[in-house]
Design brief:
The chain is mostly beta strands. 0% of the residues lie in helices and 52% in strands.
Length: 124
Amino acid sequence: QVYLVETGGGLVQAGGSLRLSCAASGSTYNIYTMAWFRQAPGKEREFMAAISWNGDIENYADFVKGRFTISIDNAKETVALRMNGLKPEDTAVYYCAAAKGLYVGDVHERYSYWGQGTQVTVAS
């Protein structure tokens, strides 16, 4: 079993920045990919970015390119999401996910493990 815990959410003004972190524990040898999703009230879960465990493969959704950056420290078993230029429409619960295989795509069903989420609220 793998456990994921997100931290770093909070309230920011439009144009501000946040750094989210996700710490993995348990049977982390099963993890080959980690990713970030978000879900706003009344909307479907939305893929943001994914990264392979060794950091050599990255994939970003078009809407975050140039603003958000995913990174991984596999020695510390932690994945981060640096978010710059935040907008009110970025307000959502942000989730960390992990896949058992090398998959960096946007299909949430392909990810086996999920954190409980951290709230990000961007004020107008």
